[in-house]
Specification:
The chain is mostly helical. It has 2 domains: 172 residues; 36 residues, no CATH class. The chain has 9 helices and 2 strands, in the order H-H-H-E-E-H-H-H-H-H-H. The chain has a two-stranded antiparallel ribbon. The chain starts with 19 loop residues before the first helix and ends in a 13-residue tail after the last helix.
């Protein structure tokens, strides 16, 4: 897997020609969706100490970053689960991939994929509702009613369930042609949330040392949370 989201995905010749480009593009989206969720968990889903550090050192930016990541993950899940097309416009989605597989005569994998896509749709039901009414659109009735009944954002358990269903669908296809499942949830990035946490912890310790007049640069290497 590439560690650069801007790099064009490579085409795997083990897949039928009809789906090679679609698969490469879609898998790239799924890989980086997991990457963003990994970063979210590292920053906001590990322990209270990390959240306190982010709030102390980043302030308002911490809250914005949390909202942006959580909303982006839900938008990405919704797009991947969109219908094959809307009106005259084709979508890059699992449903599009399923239709192309059927048209290419890949009935065995297409049949297995159908039930997994239904399970993915069910796991994303509330996520899609938020995308349609709140995150991706500004539905007036939803916003007004939210003044008295606050809209609830996704829980980590809900996102994890949706991602698990997505991995099942992706590996139904990928493993069929490659013989090996992909562990998207273990995607490794060059720089991730762990690097930010360490940098902020070091910055906080540096400030403390400056304030007390006890600056010792060797102590910065001990900043871990």
């Amino acid at each position: 897997m590439t560690t650069d989201p801007n790099t064009a995905p490579s085409v795997d010749l083990r897949f039928p020609e009809a789906i090679r480009e679609l698969w490469a593009l879609l898998e790239g989206d799924v890989v980086w969706l997991h990457g963003r969720w990994i970063i979210y968990r590292q920053l906001f889903g590990t322990n209270k100490e990390r959240v306190d550090l982010l709030n102390e050192t980043l302030g308002t930016v911490s809250g914005i970053l949390q909202d942006v990541l959580l909303h982006d993950v839900q938008l990405s899940l919704s797009k991947i689960g969109d219908p094959a097309s809307k009106g005259k416009h084709a979508n890059l989605s699992l449903r599009r991939l399923h239709d192309v597989l059927k048209d290419a005569g890949e009935d065995q994998v297409a049949s297995k994929l159908e039930s997994l896509l239904n399970a993915f749709d069910m796991a994303c039901e509330q996520i899609r509702y938020r995308r349609n009414k709140w995150i991706g659109h500004n539905d007036l009735v939803t916003r007004i009613s939210g003044q008295s009944t606050p809209l609830l954002d996704a829980s980590r358990a809900e996102i994890e369930s949706a991602l698990s269903a997505l991995r099942d669908a992706m590996n139904c296809i990928g493993q069929h042609y490659t013989g090996t499942p992909t562990r998207y949830q273990e995607f490794v990035m060059n720089q991730d949330g762990e690097h930010l946490v360490v940098a902020l912890a070091q910055a906080r310790r540096y400030r403390e040392l400056i304030e007390t007049g006890k600056l010792d640069l060797s102590e910065l290497n001990q900043c871990r949370i």
